[in-house]
């Protein structure tokens, strides 16, 4: 006997949506999934049917209305929702692709691909969380892989679920992508994949299961799965993954999402080399100074740019050439991809540009207050103007200064030219009544949107005049 309201192949719902083929049959909850065609717009759609409708379909209809408010290219779109009483249906975007579950059944993914999927999923979660909801059902079966993108499907939008559980599920996606297994302690407990590999009840890390996985990606996966480690916000996780090249075996775990990141070995090596070099230079300078000045009983200041002492120089009438440029990143402070190439901002060639990473919004994905280009003038000097050439207009910035060596604390500098938003690529910052300082910093607080839809900033040249 055919159930009242049960559809048949070829039937047209609401005078518009034709049922072409049933993809999933009715389960205990009375749901079925069909592939259909929107005859009005001539496009394929996914149609979820519930028999009966009415009160029994209330949860499905409420979730559909809520999901329709979430707009993100990697979150499945909701087109329509209709309750006819004896049945109800929700019309969604049809996505051609393979689920992550089916993909890893054929073998683990390349680490680069795994990290890309995790980053995209975290970025989509950030939009869901920003709308005040959670996915609540993130696992390899609800992630569809296309040729160039992924799509998150089957959002539960459970008000009792936590954003942290969503973020921990990203760790599960990474584990599944890298090993082909799913940690069954994560909900949902069964996703059609074998349980994570364990020895004496202890979860093995991806690197212990499979060779060739970068250390940073391995440690990140295990941190996300560890309930004793605080889960980062989805925006922070997406921003950090976006900046890393997982092909670099020296990259450390993404501990930058915590307040006190551990130093990266590669950075430490470079710092040690720099310190040794500076000590050698200083020793050589002391020796030369001792020979030339052994008869001089004057003050004990090292030679300054005035040829006499290290006291502040008088105001210069023309250009002031910085001796060094560095990038101040208060959140990370050690990401070579973003803090590198600062020298391009003072090389005199506008064609060379320092560029930030891409962010989800103009406020650095809400990860940090801003970033700074710090200029070392070599000695305290009185500057009158800082001119900055950006790669694109729309940057909000100000100029700060001080005599403290650059660190991750942007508050160590005093603001000498207040914040302004540029309508062109060139911005001028007058330093009215600014004292003589050794360091000047262009502090950037808002980014323009690029044609790709992401937000970033490029600094082509910074010049200082007296």
Q: Could you explain how this protein is built, in words?
A:
The protein has 466 residues and is an alpha+beta fold. Helix content is 24%, strand content 24%. It has helices at 58-67, 100-105, 111-130, 163-179, 206-209, 215-225, 234-243, 265-293, 336-339, and strands at 12-13, 17-24, 31-38, 43-50, 78-83, 88-93, 98-99, 143-145, 150-152, 198-199, 202-203, 319-320, 324-328, 354-355, 371-381, 385-390, 396-402, 414-421, 426-430, 437-446, 458-465. Strands 1-2-3-4-6-5 form a six-stranded antiparallel beta sheet, with helices on one face. Strands 12, 14, 16, 19 and 21 form a five-stranded antiparallel beta sheet that branches. A five-stranded antiparallel beta sheet has the order 13-15-20-17-18, with no helix packed on it. Helix 3 (111-130) packs antiparallel against helix 4 (163-179) and helix 4 packs across helix 6 (215-225). The longest helix has 29 residues, at 265-293.
Could you name the key traits of this structure?
466 residues, alpha+beta, 6-stranded antiparallel β-sheet, 5-stranded antiparallel β-sheet, 9 helices, 21 strands
Layout of secondary structure:
Elements: E1 12-13, E2 17-24, E3 31-38, E4 43-50, H1 58-67, E5 78-83, E6 88-93, E7 98-99, H2 100-105, H3 111-130, E8 143-145, E9 150-152, H4 163-179, E10 198-199, E11 202-203, H5 206-209, H6 215-225, H7 234-243, H8 265-293, E12 319-320, E13 324-328, H9 336-339, E14 354-355, E15 371-381, E16 385-390, E17 396-402, E18 414-421, E19 426-430, E20 437-446, E21 458-465
Antiparallel strand pairs: 1-2, 2-3, 3-4, 4-6, 5-6, 7-8, 8-9, 10-11, 12-21, 13-15, 14-21, 15-20, 16-19, 16-21, 17-18, 17-20
Helix pairs in contact: 3-4, 3-7, 4-6
């Amino acid at each position: 006997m055919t159930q009242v309201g049960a559809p048949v192949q070829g039937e047209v719902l609401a005078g518009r949506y034709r049922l072409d083929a049933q993809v999933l049959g009715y389960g205990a909850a009375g749901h079925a999934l069909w592939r259909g065609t929107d005859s009005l717009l001539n496009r394929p759609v996914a149609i979820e049917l519930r028999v009966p409708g009415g009160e029994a379909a209330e949860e499905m209809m409420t979730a559909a209305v809520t999901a329709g408010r979430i707009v993100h290219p990697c979150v499945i779109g909701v087109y329509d929702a209709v309750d006819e009483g004896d049945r109800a249906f929700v019309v969604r975007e049809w996505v051609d692709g393979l689920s992550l579950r089916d993909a890893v059944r054929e073998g683990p993914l390349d680490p680069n691909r795994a990290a890309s999927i995790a980053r995209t999923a975290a970025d989509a979660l950030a939009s869901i969380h920003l709308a005040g909801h959670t996915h609540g059902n993130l696992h390899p079966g609800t992630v569809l892989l296309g040729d160039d993108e992924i799509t998150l499907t089957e959002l539960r939008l459970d008000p009792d679920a936590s954003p942290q559980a969503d973020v921990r599920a990203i760790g599960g996606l990474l584990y599944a992508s890298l090993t082909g297994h799913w940690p069954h302690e994560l909900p949902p407990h069964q996703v059609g994949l074998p349980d994570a590999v364990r020895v004496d009840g202890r979860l093995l890390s991806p690197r212990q299961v499979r060779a060739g996985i970068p250390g940073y990606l391995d440690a990140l996966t295990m941190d996300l799965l560890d309930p004793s480690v605080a889960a980062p916000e989805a925006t922070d996780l997406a921003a950090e993954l976006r900046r890393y090249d997982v092909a670099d075996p020296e990259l450390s775990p993404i501990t930058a999402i915590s307040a006190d990141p551990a130093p990266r070995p590669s950075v430490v090596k470079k710092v040690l080399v720099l310190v040794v070099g500076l000590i050698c230079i200083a020793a050589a300078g002391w020796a030369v100074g001792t020979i030339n000045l052994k008869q001089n009983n004057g003050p004990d200041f090292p030679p300054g740019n005035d040829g006499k002492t290290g006291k502040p120089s008088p105001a210069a009438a023309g250009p002031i050439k910085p001796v060094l440029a560095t990038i101040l990143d208060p959140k990370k402070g050690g990401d070579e991809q973003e803090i590198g190439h600062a020298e391009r901002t003072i090389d005199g060639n506008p064609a060379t540009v320092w560029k930030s990473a891409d962010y989800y919004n103009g406020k650095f994905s809400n990860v940090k207050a801003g970033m700074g280009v710090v200029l070392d003038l070599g000695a305290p000097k009185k500057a009158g103007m800082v001119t900055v050439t950006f790669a694109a207009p729309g940057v909000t910035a100000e100029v700060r200064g001080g005599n403290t060596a650059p660190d991750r604390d942007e508050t160590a500098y005093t603001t000498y030219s207040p914040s302004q938003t540029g309508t062109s690529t060139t911005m001028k910052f007058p330093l009215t009544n600014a004292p003589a300082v050794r360091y000047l910093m262009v502090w950037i607080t808002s980014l323009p949107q690029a044609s790709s839809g992401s937000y970033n900033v490029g600094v082509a040249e910074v010049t200082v005049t007296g």
